[in-house]
Model the fold of this input.
Amino acid sequence: MRRDPPRRPVKQRIIWAPVASALVLVGPAVLAVVTGQVFLFPSLGPTAVMLAHEPQHHSSRPYAVLVSHAVGFLAASVSVAIFGVAFAPSVFETHTVSLARACAAVLALALAVFLEVVLHAEHPPAAATTLLVALGSFQPTLYSAFLIMSGVVVVLAIGEPLRRVRLKLEARLDDPDASSQIV
Done:
């Protein structure tokens, strides 16, 4: 079983975590405003926070982030197809959840988590991506996959360097000689 290092005291995270989280979301936010496309969506927020709060955690590594969001999209796409709601209106439009949508969401989440574990790509925030597709906010199309994965890549392009800086700073706090190590 993997064990993560203990968390730093609040005073060492109180500035870093909110600032880093916000900075990570600037990229997809600007891209969304400039293009008029949905490159900013709810599951990117928890991903940004995970990168800022828990940079040492396995779930914050780029592989886990990329694979889990992709797997979530695929699992939900298969599930909504199985239950015949792939192109039905979103639950956020209808304000109701049909039995088929509910079953698709449950199957999608179970399938996504199973695949994340098999692929060693656990990243809990990606469950929100799974539900966004399963509940109809994104349709199971290549274009939606492009929007989702583009948003994830932009978050990682900003978040991964910040994650590494934070890890180096923490290494310095623990051992001044360890600051030259790259995680």
The CA atoms of residues 21 and 48 lie 5 Å apart.
